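Q: Could you predict the 3D structure of Sialate O-acetylesterase domain-containing protein?
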Amino acid sequence: MIEAMFKLLMLLLTFHSSLAANVAKDIFILAGQSNMAGRGGVVHGKWDGNVPPECRPNPSTLRLSAKLTWEEAQEPLHADIDVGKTCGIGPGMAFVDGLRANGSRTGVVGLVPCAAGGTKIRKWARGTRLYRQLVSRAGESVKDGGAIRAILWYQGESDTVTKEDADAYRGNMETLITNLRTDLNEPSLPVIQVRPFSISLKILRHQVRFAISLSIIGQKDTLLIYEKVMKQQWWG
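A: Sure. Here are the predicted C-alpha cells for Sialate O-acetylesterase domain-containing protein:
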C-alpha cells in the first residue's frame, strides 16, 4: 500500500514538473469575430473535422481553456469560448506554424482565444463583457510566467453593413488599441490586424479597410496589417 502511494506521488510530481516546464513563454491573444473564432470547414452548421497540416497539434503550442488552464492546443481553438456557435478552423494555429516555419526562435507558444462571432467593434469597447473577458484572460495567461507578444485581431466585417459604423471604425479601433495597451500595462504591445474582405458591400468594406490603413500611419512601430493570415512571414 505504501509502495503504491509512493509511486502515485512520484507520478504526480513528475506530471507537475512536466507541466511547469511547458508553461507558455510567448503568448498571443486571439480576438475579433467569426473569422478569428474559426469557421473554416463549417458547412450547414457542422464542422467537417478536417485539419490542415499547418493547424495540427504540437506539444509546444498551448491554449488557455475557458477554465483558465493551459492545455495542448487543437482545433477548434474557440470551441469553449465562442459558445452557441459551431467553430471550425481559424488562423491561430496556422499563425504559430508560420512563426516556426520562418525560422522564429519560438519555444512554447500560448494562444488565448477570446473571439466572438458576429460582433461589431463597439461590442469590444472598454467596459463591455468581451473587453473585460479579454483583459481577464490575458492577465491569467501570464500568471505563471511568459509574456504577451501581440494581439491578433480579425474583425470588421460586421462594421461594413452601415455607413455610420464604417465611418466610426477608425476612431473605435484606435481607442480599443489604446485602452488595451493601458489595461494590459503594455504600452507598445503590437496589434496584428487583418483587413476584412469577405463582405459583398464593397464600398463600405473598402471604407473600413481604408480606416485600418490610416491607423497604421501614426503607429507604424506596432500596428501591423496582413492581407491573408496564412501567407505571411510573422514574428521575427
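Q: Anything worth pointing out?
A: The longest helix spans residues 163-183.
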